[in-house]
Amino acid sequence: MESQRPGDLRRTEVTTSQWSKRHANHPSVLPNGNIVGAHRAPLQLGTTSCRGGLRPPGICWAKSVTSSRTVPTAQAVIMIGLVTRHVLSDSQAFRLPRCHSIFVNIHICADYDGMSEQAARTVAEAIHAKPHLVLCLPSGNTPEGMYRELIRMHRHNHLDFSKVKFFLLDEYWGLPDDHPQSFRAFLWRVFLNHVKVHPANVYPPHETYDETVQRAGGIDLLICGIGVNGHIAFNEPGSALDSRTRIVELADSTIALMRSSFSPHELPHQAITMGVATILEARRILLLASGSHKAQILARAFAREITTDVPASVLRLHSNLIVIADEGAATIYRRIALKPIA
């Protein structure tokens, strides 16, 4: 790799072999906001224009010179830190300086139904453009309206899901496959059973999930929600930026929300989840947020600093992120993000 000085914001290129030797190192930051990573020295961050809006330099630029493909975003972030030389603990959170100039493509709808309809249109347009779409789906209350609208489109507009490959974003670990509270059972019950999906095209998470995703050609469109503590999938606060699909311990706040759905002896304390890096490798990400109980965390994730303490905020590093929120969820964000910058 071409030699660089700290503070040099030129395009960064690495070979696949260089990346494979370095990707296990977690990036961190110095108190002044500089990213540090594999070789551990400060590299100043600013902002620069690229596809999708303003991003920290290097996020959209890093490419593999052996394959000419764009390197996934999480890898690109770590590449920024490859010229570093100061050592920080891996337990320290990745953090970018607070900055209002990082672009967020957010659509605010009048209500939950409007949010659901717009999300369904986004999915339908993606399927029309690519019938063999590789689609990653979440469970939970927020996407249920989107699933109902997609079922309506299938029945009345002949939206065809027969060639689509479906990947589940996460799943409780240790539950039987047919447990009614499993995410797999939920998705079949509220959506997949109604749109003529072949079971062989549905992939639940497993321990070699990332390899399965790659064999399918990578995720074209990944849909996720945002937890009240900022988690995406089951990537709880503090999840590493380069984390992959793995089994995780659930946060106490997450378990508390689950207690009403499980008997005490069935209550899961672990889950298997796509990692932050796995999520950022999707070609396109759609995040949904609904309800006033999500207002504070949505504003923190998309109008404050980017930090792994709020995993959803890291999605702002992706060059093709869309956020769709209803008015309840966007109330605080609208007030903060639309305030003029002095």
Layout of secondary structure:
Layout lengths: L12 E2 L1 H7 L5 E2 L5 E2 L11 E3 L2 E3 L7 E2 L8 H8 L25 E4 L2 H18 L4 E4 L6 H14 L7 E4 L1 E3 L10 H8 L11 E2 L5 H7 L5 E4 L21 E4 L2 H7 L11 E4 L2 H5 L4 E5 L5 H9 L17 E6 H11 L5
Helix pairs in contact: 3-4, 9-10
Describe the structure.
The protein is an alpha/beta fold. The protein has 2 domains: 103 residues, no CATH class; 232 residues, Rossmann fold (3-Layer(aba) Sandwich). The chain contains 10 helices and 16 strands. It has a 7-stranded parallel sheet. It has a 3-stranded antiparallel sheet with strand order 10-14-13, with no helix packed on it. The radius of gyration is 20 Å and the shape is globular.
Whole-number radius of gyration? 20 Å
Q: What's the level 1 CATH class of the largest domain?
A: Alpha Beta
The main β sheet shows up as: 7 strands, parallel
Strand content: 15-25%
Distance from N terminus to C terminus (CA atoms, Å) equals: 40 Å
Q: How many distinct helices?
A: 10
Across the major sheet, the strand order is: 7-16-15-12-8-9-11
What is this structure, in a nutshell?
This protein is α/β, with parallel strands linked by helices and 342 residues long. The protein contains 10 helices and 16 strands.
